[in-house]
Specification:
366 residues; alpha/beta; Rossmann fold; globular; SGNH_hydro_sf
Length: 366
């Protein structure tokens, strides 16, 4: 296991709690032992704002966060286009795996060859598996289909840098992270009736997972073999959703959390079936629901305090263009589970990333 680098007292406390959780929930011989991390050549990231490291900076959309206070706790205190006050889960995983400190956006025109070789991000804030027009933030995002198109461009560039054989090796040994789905439910099902008129919840979940399956198969055909697929968070605990459904008592929307859990259960059953159809592949489920619900339901255990609103503004609805340098922010974002009304704070991302490093990444070696 790589050395730990949580910053601040909260980070240290969270690390100790994560290790206690793993030591009591994972059976490894007669005592808790460190699990070694697998080796990956690079990291390739697809999905939505949870993993967008700045691609939306380069497209026409209201879903841009290349302004303060976003990035206030990022190295250099600069807004990079990440939907948080600091690093994302994928940045932290790349660091834990000794690949790179942060994952740059593919649309950055100044990418070096070395950055391309060690991996980039294709994700876009507002994206989802459902390409229905109203499903994108501000009417503009890079759809999952178009992210696949960008990846094809990337593969061509990669082959031009290192040649066909080496490119095939890099792609086959890359950690491919896919994190999407929340926007589909929030934008197309819960808050707007666009898909409720066509699907019931069970059908819509199956529809999205079929789309995910096709997406993975397309990446596989392009040379990818090692996939980390994120499940859904407890959507009903996102501050914006609480505002929409339970503004006064600020409690999680349990029906939406139940939907997330059912989706995740289906996903854990579907991935092994898909893996069996893709020779040489490894598909690992990334559980983000449990670590997030741990933080939300037991905040003081992890050193956080505020769980039902974000740090930016009132924390009830501010996000992207409504969270600006003119918007007041909390004094200490590490005390908040959420940075804005939709997105996690860096301390939350640290906890989720460490949880995935310990309980998710070793599954690539099984």
């Amino acid at each position: 296991m790589l050395p730990l680098s949580f910053s601040g007292s909260n980070g240290t406390k969270i690390w100790r709690i994560v290790m206690m959780h793993v030591c009591t929930s994972v059976v490894v011989t007669s005592k808790c032992i460190a699990l070694s991390s697998p080796n990956f050549s690079s990291i390739l990231v697809f999905g939505d704002s949870t993993v967008d490291s700045g691609n939306n900076n380069y497209i026409l959309t209201l879903g841009k966060v290349n302004h303060f206070p976003y990035g206030k706790d990022f190295p250099g205190h600069v807004p990079t286009g990440r939907f948080s006050n600091g690093k994302l889960v994928t940045d932290l995983l790349a660091s834990y795996l000794n690949i790179k400190d942060t994952v740059p956006p593919f649309l950055d025109p100044n990418l070096s060859n070395d950055q391309l070789l060690t991996g980039v991000c294709f994700a876009s804030g507002g994206a989802g598996f459902d390409d229905f027009p109203l499903g994108s933030l501000g009417g503009g995002s890079i759809s999952m289909f178009n992210q696949l198109g960008l990846f094809r461009v990337y593969v061509t560039k990669l082959k031009g840098i290192v040649g066909e054989d080496k490119a095939r090796q890099i792609l086959g040994d890359a950690l491919v992270v896919i994190s999407a789905g929340t926007n589909d439910f929030v934008n197309n099902f819960y808050n707007l009736p666009t898909r409720r008129m066509m699907f019931n919840m069970d059908m819509y979940q199956d529809f999205l997972q079929y789309k995910l399956q096709v997406f993975i198969k397309d990446l596989y055909d392009l040379g990818c073999r090692k996939f980390g697929i994120s499940g859904l968070p407890p959507i009903g605990c996102i501050p914006f959703q609480i505002t929409v459904k339970h503004e006064k008592d600020r409690k999680c929307v349990e029906d939406e959390n139940s939907d997330s859990k059912l989706y995740n259960l289906k996903l854990t059953e579907r991935l092994p079936q898909l893996q069996a159809l893709l020779p040489g592949s490894r598909l690992v489920y990334g559980d983000i629901y449990d670590p997030l619900i741990n933080l939300i339901t037991q905040p003081h255990k992890y050193g956080v305090e505020i769980t039902n609103r974000g740090c930016c503004g009132t924390g009830l609805f501010e996000v992207a263009p409504l969270c600006t340098e003119l918007t007041p922010v909390c004094n200490d974002a590490s005390k908040y589970v959420f940075w804005d009304s939709l997105h996690a704070s860096e301390v939350t991302n640290q906890y989720v990333a460490k949880y995935l490093e310990i309980q998710g990444l070793p599954q690539f070696q099984i």
